[in-house]
């Protein structure tokens, strides 16, 4: 059996080679992403794994099926880069890695929130300019005095809420499918609107779906408490960035943490030092001191990378050998 990993980062190679040696299955790696131009690299391989955030070209699905490929695996929890209907029509099973390391993202969400609440970027900038004064611009709140809203209380959201609870904060949550484990430290609200009206900080932990596209838009943001914070380490499309910028400009919100941005595909995981980014919305976002932006990196720990690589390779092997996998996206 031969497998090919597209979009392979340097930090993924060791984990792939360890898995290959353990299983006796050959794994080829390439830094290129899967496109119609790179499709030729699939020839001679039995399975395909990708790591990319942009939508796959629609022409790839029938082309891969014609080459005898039966599956596509993403080395991520999110699978919004796939057209599930097109995959099904062409007999391609789609797999993801739903639980590679929820702690990684939860810890990052809390760390980045603390950075925002305590104005660490502004303090660092002041110090670099030899401004050592205490002033209202860096006066902070204590987490234990805040009400934290967790939107989506699955694996990641539950751990995020538990970590915030450790600071002594009151935790509230909203989920269409409440988690009994989470009830130990949070109180569920019946509607999302009820949660956003009460929370001082909202942390989003949902997959991207058609139903929640721009869920946090002008209307919902207007219902948030004055001076609240919004934290998104989930998927960029859940937040309407232009509406968020307006809420910050009007000082409705005190700040936002964004590890994902809805139009990030052209530049995330690329070194563009010295290059101009032709995206007016993103440039407006980057110009603000009240936004803490990071390039979709909340997951990025040693444990998570190993689990993502091994989980996706296991799923690929299982689909090829048995036609099914616990990680298959239905």
Secondary-structure blueprint of this entry?
Blueprint: E1 2-5, H1 10-23, E2 26-29, E3 47-50, H2 60-66, E4 71-74, H3 84-89, E5 93-95, H4 102-117, H5 120-128, E6 147-151, H6 155-166, E7 170-174, E8 186-188, H7 192-198, E9 201-204, H8 218-222, E10 228-232, H9 241-249, E11 253-258, H10 280-286, E12 291-293, H11 302-322
Parallel strand pairs: 1-2, 1-3, 3-4, 4-5, 6-7, 6-9, 7-8, 9-10, 10-11, 11-12
Helix pairs in contact: 1-11, 4-6
Spatial strand sequence of the major β-sheet: 8-7-6-9-10-11-12
Question: Judging from the principal axes of the Cα atoms, what is the shape?
Answer: globular
Cα-atom radius of gyration = 21 Å
The number of helical runs is 11
Please describe the biggest sheet, giving its number of strands, its sense, and whether it closes into a barrel: 7 strands, parallel
Decide which structural class fits the backbone.
alpha/beta
Kindly state the percentage of residues in helix: 25-40%
How far apart the termini lie comes to 25 Å
Give the H and E element order: EHEEHEHEHHEHEEHEHEHEHEH
Low-confidence stretches: none
Mean pLDDT: 96
Strand content: 15-25%
Number of strands: 12
Question: What does this molecule look like?
Answer:
Helices cover 34% and strands 15% of the residues. The longest helix has 21 residues, at 302-322. The strands form two sheets. It has a seven-stranded parallel sheet, sandwiched between helices. Strands 2-1-3-4-5 form a five-stranded parallel sheet. The chain has eleven helices and twelve strands. With 330 residues, the chain is α/β, with parallel strands linked by helices.
């Amino acid at each position: 059996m031969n497998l090919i990993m597209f979009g392979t980062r340097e930090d993924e190679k060791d984990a792939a080679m360890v898995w290959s040696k353990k299983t006796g299955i050959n794994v080829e790696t390439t830094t290129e992403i899967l496109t119609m131009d790179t499709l030729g690299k699939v020839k001679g391989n039995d399975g395909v794994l990708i790591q990319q955030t942009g939508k796959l070209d629609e022409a790839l699905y029938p082309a891969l099926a014609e080459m005898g490929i039966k599956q596509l695996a993403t080395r991520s929890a999110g699978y919004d880069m796939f057209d599930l209907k097109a995959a099904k029509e062409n007999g391609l099973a789609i797999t993801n890695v739903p639980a590679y390391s929820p702690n990684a993202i939860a810890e990052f969400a809390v760390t980045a929130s603390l950075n925002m609440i305590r104005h660490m970027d502004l303090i660092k900038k002041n110090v670099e300019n030899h401004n050592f004064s205490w002033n209202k611009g860096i006066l902070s709140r204590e987490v234990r005095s805040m009400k934290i809203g967790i939107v989506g209380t699955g694996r990641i959201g539950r751990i995020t809420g538990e970590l915030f609870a450790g600071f002594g904060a009151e935790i509230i949550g909203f989920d269409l499918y409440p988690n009994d484990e989470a009830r130990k430290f949070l109180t569920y609200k019946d509607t999302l609107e009820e949660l956003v009206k009460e929370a001082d900080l909202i942390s989003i932990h949902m997959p991207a779906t058609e139903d929640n596209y721009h869920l946090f838009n002008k209307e919902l943001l207007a219902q948030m408490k004055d001076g609240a914070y919004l934290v998104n380490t989930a998927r960029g499309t859940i937040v309407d960035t232009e509406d968020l910028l307006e809420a910050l400009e009007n000082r409705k919100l005190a700040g936002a943490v964004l590890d994902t941005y809805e139009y990030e595909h052209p530049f995330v995981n690329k070194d563009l030092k010295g290059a101009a980014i032709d995206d007016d919305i993103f440039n407006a976002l980057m110009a603000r001191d009240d936004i803490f932006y990071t390039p979709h990196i909340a997951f990025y720990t040693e444990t998570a990378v190993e689990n993502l690589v091994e989980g996706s390779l296991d799923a690929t092997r299982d689909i090829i050998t048995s036609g099914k996998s616990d990680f298959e996206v239905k």
